[in-house]
Amino acid sequence: MEILLDTANLELIKKYNEIYEIAGVSSNPTILSKEKADFFPHLKKIREIIGDKQLHVQVTGSACEQMLKEAERIVSMLGKETYIKVPANEEGIRTMKALKNKGFRVTATAVYMPQQAMLSASVGADYVAPYYNRISNLNADSKAVIREISELFKKHDQSTKILAASFKNTQQIMEALSAGAQAVTASPELYTQMV
Length: 195
Known about the structure:
Elements: E1 2-6, H1 10-19, E2 24-26, H2 29-34, H3 39-50, E3 54-58, H4 64-78, E4 82-87, H5 90-101, E5 105-111, H6 114-122, E6 127-130, H7 132-137, H8 142-155, E7 161-164, H9 170-179, E8 183-186, H10 188-194
Helix pairs in contact: 1-3, 4-5, 6-8, 8-9
């Protein structure tokens, strides 16, 4: 079971990295914009705090060529341990395939359905990130979605891991883990609520 921090706040990352055995940090453009800091200098500070632990950074382009250029720049600035977060749509799948062929680490993000997870895994994504609360907001059963992804991966011997994300409360985190997610990324405040 892997626990990641879904924040770009340096003080919180320092604090929770000392308390818990975190696997790393995940970020997205919204989280980073809250910090009102320059993109690469801020991410380099996160890398200094967490060392060689996982750092998941999302690309913002919508076309494959844009995402590939962003990914190359991100990894050149932050190191090979950096996971490139790519949306699980057709351009994203194309990008993931190209990135994996070049030896990059990849997280398929914005996963709402098992089909997206399956297609992302088929091109070698290291993680798929189903958005638990957002799936619920679409009147779908988030726990069932994660369970189905987990069963698909086991049945077809996929090494891709499920990194559940987008949590509103601690119950959702525990449901995701009990449904088969190997990893979760949540706000530090939710980890505090757990204890």
